[in-house]
Each structure stands twice: as C-alpha cells, then as structure tokens.
Design a protein that fits this description.
The chain has one domain (2-183, 197-384): Up-down Bundle (Growth Hormone, Chain: A). The chain is built from 15 helices and no strands. It is mostly helical. The model is unreliable at 190-194 (pLDDT under 50). The relative contact order is 0.17.
C-alpha cells in the first residue's frame, strides 16, 4: 500500500511537470514574437500569455466539483489530452489572434486537470504527510516551469519556433499513459456538503489571497520582464543571445523553486504553513524591489534565485494550507484555490502589461514590491488574532 501511494505521488509530479512545462515554454518564443515578428505592445504580449488563465480560471471550481462526483482520473486524463491537442496547434498560428485561441484551449485543459490532481494527492495521503507529498508534487511543477524557458530558447535557436510545443504535447501524452497504468481511482467516499468551519474558511481565504498576489510575480516575469530585459538591458547582444539569456534567467528562478522544495517541506514542520507562505511573499517583494534597480544581466540571475526561493515557499505553504482546510469535497476546495491561483496568473500580468505601457516596467516593479510588503504586514497582523487549523 505504501509503495502504491509513492507511485501515485510520483506520477502526480510527472503530470504537473508536463502541464507546467507548457505554461512557461512560451516565454522565449513570446519575446521573439513581441520584439521581432509581430512588434506588438506590452498589453498584447500579456494577453497571449494570460489567455491560458482566462480559460482555466472559470473551469477550476466546476472541474473540482466534477472530480468529486465522477472521480479524479477522468478529469486528469481528459485535461491532459485537451492540453496536448492544443499544443500541436501552435504551428498553425498566423498571428496574435491565433496564439490567443490556442492558449485558451491549453488553459481549458489545465482548468480540468489541476483541481483533480491535487485532490488526488489529498485523497491518498494522511494529514501529517500532506506537506511532504505536496513538496514532491511541487518539484514536478517547478521542474516543468524551470525547463520551459531554457528549452524554449534552446530549441528555438537550434530548430524552429514550434519545436518546444511539440515537446510539450509529447510530455502530456506520456503523463496520460502513466495515469492509466499506475494510478488507481481513490476509494469512493461519501461527500460531506457541510460548509467549512470558520477556521477552515479563514485558512482557505488567506491561502488564496497569498497565492493570488504571489503567483502574479512569476506571471509578470514572462510577458513584462522578458521583453523588458531584451529591449533595455541586453541591447548590445544579438537577438538569439538575448533570448537564450532570458531563458536561463527564468529557468534559474524556477530551478531554485524546485531544488528547495524538500528543504522547505522540513522547514514548514517548524514554522507552519502560514508563516512559510508569508516568508515567501516577503522574498518576492524584495525581488521586485531589486528589479527596479537592476542594470545588468548578472544582477538578474541573483534576483531570480531569491525570487525562486520566495515562490517555492509561498506555493508550498498555501497549497498545503488549502488542502488541510478541505472537508470531504476536496475537489471543490482545490478548485477554489486554483481559481485564485490562475486568476492571479492571468489577471495580474494583463493588468501589469497595461500599466507598463503607461509607466514603464521599472515603475511597475517598484509599485508591486510596495504592494507585497503592505500585504505581508496586513496578513501577519490578522494572523496574530486568528488561529488556523
């Protein structure tokens, strides 16, 4: 039984890797489309990136509820298959409109997939081991996100602009096969429709607020930071060189996110989920502040490492806190969490892209840093007067 659970957790990490690879692999091609091919605005760049979340956000809660009713496996495999099918459509894109449509289809697959996969982890792990299981899952998330930008730049410069998306489809199909072969459907449990306890609602609400604002930092790194760095900090380099460096910078951030997961899991046992989440949010704010002053590519690598640590801490902390707040309707609760996750991933870069057209990226980085600092203080004060289960 223990080995079976271990296999399930490993497969969930592989599935998460496949899904997240496609989210960030677009980073380097997107910089090329904006700078060279389509010469679009910051807003259009952000719209292409955010189309993924525009589709996934409204599907998270329905997808989670549906997984409570018909099972986890149908939603996991169905979401991955839709995701893979959308990925192979990128070569047929002939402009920004086609790219937006294709990203919408990818996002729809993710909207069905993510609540079901995290509910599966909750179903198959004990309360005490939840954080460790979520850290393994997050290793898959971080590895996919980390490999995406670097693979996008490398495959683009070595082959063509669409090769990264073929690889994305291949990863998703392999994941579907592994789920079918190795992941049993969890035993059916009677679904308790009783509302969450007050402390559980507070824990879920706080975790959603933190992940919404925190994941927005990662989101604006692709549609705003990547073109900003290519245009303003690396103008002396050739375009292929700029794109490769940007890919490595983003991958550094996400590699740190991945590498630190097991350490953060151990740390969380002593600090608690909420304190770990707030620590991560503070690191994200410090990274945004440092970006305001950045003038050289080398500084971007150091900033990305700190940012990766912050994102790793707040992601693991909020995901574990949300899962522990769930009653028997686990899929619904995880759907709520991922609704806020993808709302931040989509709405924040879209809004920040518009602001960047007005004020410029540097002022945006400074303003977002101040916002995160204020949010940290408010939640910390709130936590002093409330206890979370």
């Amino acid at each position: 039984m223990v080995n079976c659970i271990r296999y399930v957790i490993i497969v969930t990490a592989i599935c998460a890797f496949s899904a997240q690879f496609g989210v960030t692999v677009i980073a380097t091609p997107l910089a090329w489309w904006v700078v060279e091919e389509f010469e679009t605005s910051w807003f259009v760049s952000s719209l292409i990136f955010s189309a993924f979340t525009i589709a996934s956000t409204p599907l998270e809660i329905p997808g989670g509820i549906l997984s409570d009713r018909i099972g986890r496996r149908p939603l996991i495999t169905g979401g991955l298959l839709l995701y893979a099918g959308a990925s192979v459509l990128f070569p047929f894109a002939r402009g920004a409109t086609d790219l937006v449509f294709t990203r919408l289809l990818q996002g729809a697959g993710a909207g069905l997939f993510f609540p079901a996969i995290t509910a599966l982890i909750t179903d198959t792990t004990s309360y005490e081991n939840r954080g460790h299981a979520m850290s393994i899952y997050n290793i898959g998330v971080g590895a996919g996100m980390a490999l995406g930008p670097a693979a996008g730049g490398l495959l683009f410069t070595r082959y063509d602009i669409f090769m990264p998306f073929y690889l994305c489809a291949g990863f998703a199909l392999i994941s579907v096969i592994l789920v079918i072969l190795l992941v049993p459907e969890p035993m059916h449990k009677a679904r308790d429709r009783t509302a969450l306890q007050v402390t559980d609602r507070r824990a879920l609400t706080v975790s959603c607020i933190i992940i919404f604002s925190g994941i927005g930092v990662a989101a604006i790194m692709t549609p705003v930071f990547a073109p900003f760095a290519a245009k303003e900090l690396m103008s002396s380099l050739s375009l292929p060189e700029r794109l490769e460096i940007i890919g490595y910078i983003l991958s550094t951030m996400l590699a740190v996110f991945t590498i630190l997961q097991m350490l953060l899991s151990r740390l969380m046992k002593y600090t608690g989920e909420l304190n770990l989440s707030l620590f991560g949010l503070l690191l994200c704010g410090l990274s945004m502040l440092a970006l305001y002053f950045a003038t050289a590519p080398l500084a971007l690598f150091m900033i990305s490492a700190v940012l990766g640590a912050g994102l790793g801490a707040l992601s693991l902390g909020t995901l574990t806190l949300a899962s522990k707040s769930a009653n028997m309707e686990v899929g619904k609760v995880m759907g709520i969490y991922y609704t806020l996750f993808y709302a931040g991933l989509g709405a924040i870069p879209l809004f920040c892209g518009w602001l960047s057209d007005i004020s410029g990226p540097r002022i945006l980085f400074l303003g977002y840093a101040m916002l995160l600092f204020v949010l940290c203080a408010v939640i910390w004060i709130y936590a002093l007067f409330n206890r979370f289960s």
